[in-house]
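Q: I'm a student working through a structural biology exercise. My instructor gave each of us a protein and asked us to get a predicted structure, then write a short paragraph describing it. Mine is DUF3443 domain-containing protein. I'm not confident about reading structure output yet, so if you can add a plain explanation after the tokens, that would really help. Here is the sequence I was given:
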Amino acid sequence: MRTMQSAVKLKGWMQAVVAVVLVAVVAACGGGGSGSNNNSSNALNGGSLPPSPTQQPIAANAANTVPITVGAGVKGVINIPTVSVTVCPPGTTSNCQKIDNIQVDTGSFGLRLVSSVVNTSLLPISTLSSGAQLAECATFADGYTWGTVRTATVQIGGETTAGAIPIQIIGDPAAGTIPAKGCGGGPAENTASDLGANGILGIGTAPTDCGATCANTATAANYSNYFACPGGTSCARTAVPLNQQVANPAANFAADNNGVIVQMPPILSNTGAPSATGTLVFGITPPGTQSNNALAAAQTFTTDPFGDMNNSVYNGTTVQAFLDSGSNAYFFADNSLALCTNFASFYCPSSAQTRSITLAGLNSTKASVSIGILSAATLFGNSSNYAFNDLAGQIGGSSSFDLGLPFFYGRYVYYGFDQTLNGGQAPYVGF
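A: Happy to help. First, here is the predicted structure for DUF3443 domain-containing protein. I'll explain a few features afterward.
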């Protein structure tokens, strides 16, 4: 899930696929469980899949870790990794609110909480120097979230932000009327039902969700996703300084704040598992932070500020590739793969398929990655499974390749935050 810098991405299920919004009760299990048709050759239908990665997540029992859960969640949407987040009023550790089922999204930046799960009276609304309150329209490929910008101290696992940071409260009535012009295309996604989660934890490579585009008055006039709303009305697009933009919480922790590691277990069955439990690790060594977060990637790719590898190649075409836990499938354009009849925009090849993409970083690192694709109709046939490592769908155009959550299973995926503004590290991803 990516905000306005890359609106080609697809969030979560692309909620059109409501046929798999299930209410089944499933038991959580450590690692990737097995589905009812474990590694069934019938599911492959004469095709083959590449070997699956096999790394196991570390235990989430240290202060710089928090468990990641994939399961039925709040709406029965598949492949949504979630954690628990606690928000406190600025300057205090009392009246804190713990909120479960927050989507872990390495393709966006900043914390966004649905208003129905937050006591917003405890979190002050951000205001501009003019006195106007601040609202945001965060745009995604399939819709947008509208709400106030408020400030809160954020706790995740044993980590706490060094001070209060801006967050978005989605669907906050205090935000006022959604602007008739200038907000996102597609439907509003302002409820937990719309999102499939109680909020979004954006922990990609960028420290804020918009950066210079929204801070510069020349570009903000047309492209800012922030709005000045005097008295909560007459909202107009506005420039916002970096320190008032919705911020990546993990980049603002008092410690372990130079990156994150997403560790998901292998999925043992080609046809999915009822659940999966991984670990989100804060901080990356070097430089030294903790003994459990060493940079042990086989390759790292320096990216643009938003985590994109813009010189990657798929099928002979240069594409913008990104590793995005907030997308619940691989999303890319490939006319050789048949689309599903009953599941809009997902691929349903007649037999299991393998595709390869060459990822390329700004540091000249290149690596070929193979992914497996099984028919979405086959995968969705087991209504108790919520974790899949071989689900793929179509993306508009041929210029992007979204390596969504299926890529993360059985891997440690590293995100080094962009610290160049302060003379620090360039943003990178690795696995």
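A: Here are two points you could use in your paragraph. The chain has two domains: 4-252, 301-430. Residues 4-252 form one domain. It's a good idea to check both against the output above yourself.
Q: Great, thank you!
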